[in-house]
Amino acid sequence: MPETDFSIRSFKGGFDNNLSYLVSCLRTGNQLIVDAALPLKELRPFINRRGLIAVMITHTHGDHIQYLKEYVDAYPNLVVIIFKESKEKIKSNYIKPVTDQEIVTVGQLSIEIIHTPGHHPDSLCFYIENVLFTGDTLFVGRTGRTVGIKSDTKDLYHSVFEKIMKLPKDTVLYPGHDYGKKMSITLEENIKISSLLQAKDEKDFLKKMKDYEKNRTKGS
User: Fold this and answer.
1) Contact call for residues 100 and 114 (beta carbons, < 8 A)
2) What is the tens place of the pLDDT at every residue in 55-79?
3) Does residue 133 lie within any of the structural domains?
4) In a domain, 220, yes or no
5) Phi-psi region for residue 178, left (φ > 0), alpha (ψ -120 to 50) or beta?
6) Interior CA angle at 124 toward 162 and 91, to 5°?
7) Residue 1: inside a domain, yes or no?
8) Is the pLDDT higher at 217 or at 6?
9) Is 197 strand, coil or helix?
10) What is the pLDDT of residue 217?
11) What does the pLDDT read at residue 4?
């Protein structure tokens, strides 16, 4: 990965090989967490003396906010960044509701918010320089699933193909679960290994998703 102004430390665990990330601004020392999917004790040894500035929620499925209260209780000034229509789903002293294409800053890092409904209506991706935290919208080797009550496969198509796929192909993807052969991947490489990301159009994507679910084995 090219030289950046931040570092990323990945943590795996939680409900189902969840991935949480601790991102540190190398210029200011300020830190943020992407998803509160693991207990605070797992991350605390790597949180610097300045403490956390923010926790960014990719979506409000329970496994991604499971330990949010631990973080909020331990860091009372912690800002919770969440999609605007889901702000009532959490409790915190400081909530920053965000919308599509909004820019938020942590330290000297500028983070673009990308609203990516499909897997869940409030799904967000976070774009920092050449890195995209994708939550459950996009995994290594495939997209997220759309089997939930509020999921929508057409919405997922538009989120992935009209937003994520428009990013530079060297963008590095950091998903919300470790479901692939490795924990992160470039967008270009992911397209090469995923038949779902090779769909010709919306109709083809819907068919590929249907076939994927029909032939899916547990854990894939």
Assistant:
1) yes
2) 999 999 999 999 999 999 999 899 9
3) yes
4) no
5) beta
6) 160
7) no
8) 6
9) helix
10) 74
11) 76
Q: Is residue 174 part of a domain?
A: yes
Give dist(CA 47, CA 218) in Å, integer. Answer: 35
pLDDT tens per residue, range 108-146: 999 999 999 999 999 999 999 999 999 999 999 999 999
Give the span between the Cα atoms of 124 and 109, in whole angstroms.
18
β-pairing, 94-98 with 103-106? unpaired
**CA distance to 78, 92, 107, 180, 187, per residue, from 50 (Å):** 12, 20, 11, 34, 33
For residues 198-218, give the mean pLDDT. 92
Structure token digits, residue 154: 């057409």
- CATH number for the domain including 190? 3.60.15.10
Closest CA to 119 of 80, 149, 95: 149
pTM for the model: 0.95
The token pair that represents 115 in the structure block: 């609203």
User: What is the chain's mean pLDDT, rounded?
Assistant: 94
| Domain that includes residue 187, residue range | 6-215
Distances (CA, A) of 99 to 36, 96, 121, 209: 20, 10, 12, 27
- Kindly report, residue by residue over 27-38, the tens digit of the pLDDT: 999 999 999 999
Residue matched to tokens 């470790």: 178
The radius of gyration of the chain's CA atoms, rounded to the nearest angstrom, is: 17
Q: Based on the structure, what is the number of domains in the chain?
A: 1
Strand 6-13 to strand 79-83: parallel, antiparallel, or no bridges (unpaired)?
Answer: unpaired
pLDDT at 1: 45
The closest alpha carbon to 212, from 201, 200, 188, 199, belongs to: 199
Tokens 């897997």, residue?
A: 119
Cα separation, 117 vs 144, in Å, equals 11
